[in-house]
């Protein structure tokens, strides 16, 4: 009878517990549950044993790790952007530069852009990409990706195939080298140029790209360079200035006419460069997203404002607004906005374009005379000066409206980081470029002979000419 009464009592307790929440409540509140079981001996004596179960603790579920996955939309956009950036060099820059030289040097000038595409492509896949984006230290990447080792079709950089990132970055290296040719046009040996660019990509471009984009010290310091203000434009402009000094001035400069032979080519080239810059800046978002779209808008706005500003300044200073000035102003605006394209608002782009137009006009005129250098096609005045202005103004106009939580919290600190990157790029590029050119000068010479220069580099270097 006692056993039956106890069983009924225990059943009632369990039933009541289940109605009130039962075992779920025990698990949630982590409370101890005690059960009392009575056993009755044959002699009628009773003993009570208490069994206490340990508290039940809820174990939180492990967070699910998000694995990077291929995004076909992002991939498609970067594929198109890669073609657009290559278009900037061939035929864009080739035509832009080719139209500004004298007729006897057109082919040799265009050949610089064409051969840059070939030489840099080879060097990039062999060792350049690895030194820029391979695993290394704060100053240079390693050799783990030499010959693109380990990069399979499944390997990703963000949401795009890494092999696509390789060729996208290759096109940046190509145009950087081609820009330098603007400073040495009409007087540098073709063989010397080929040797120089092969060495320069490895010794100068790849390390600076690693500093800024490949996990190097400037990237770790928080330097902002959306699409190449330091890596491409300051770097190439400074190298061009050093090369111009080492080569000396063109024969007859200041005594003979150095007027462009065909501005139609120059305008066509500038237009192609402008269109290609959408891939340059928009593609640097590495995705088909709002950041890419905003980069396109700021790029267009800055180029437009700089072109108009250049024309206004030229009209005030020289009395006429030239077609070459409109093209040069557009390039100036494109250069200035490059480091900031994905970081600033439209208002920022308007202001940066206006400043870029004025400062780059000064860089290609008054500053050029002050430096007493024959920077033939103004690579320094447009690209280095514009790149410096853009890099510094990026700190001023970088907006949380665009960048969100990634926007700089302290503008003065960011300004110092940007200046630090500018100074480091100028110093390193100038010193190493000088060393490379000096070595080449000792071995094969940099400048063509006087008779070859008078004849024109088309005939003396390539055995061809335009009739």
TrEMBL record:
Keyword Signal included in the entry's annotation: yes
Signal peptide positions on this chain: 1-27
Subcellular location: Cell membrane
Boundaries of every Ammonium transporter AmtB-like domain copy: 76-464
Keywords from the UniProt entry: Ammonia transport, Cell membrane, Membrane, Signal, Transmembrane, Transmembrane helix, Transport
Membrane topology: Multi-pass membrane protein
Gene Ontology molecular function: any one: ammonium channel activity
SUPFAM superfamilies, A to Z: Ammonium transporter
Top-level division of the source organism's lineage: Bacteria
Cellular-component GO terms for this entry: plasma membrane
A Pfam family that the UniProt record links to this protein: Ammonium_transp
Membrane spanning stretches: 76-98, 110-132, 163-185, 192-214, 226-247, 259-280, 292-313, 322-341, 347-367, 379-403, 415-437
Keyword Transmembrane helix: yes
UniProt-listed InterPro entries: Ammonium/urea_transptr, Ammonium_transpt, Ammonium_transpt_CS, NH4_transpt_AmtB-like_dom, RhesusRHD
Family per similarity comment: Belongs to the ammonia transporter channel (TC 1.A.11.2) family.
UniProt-recorded name of the protein: Ammonium transporter
Organism: Acinetobacter silvestris
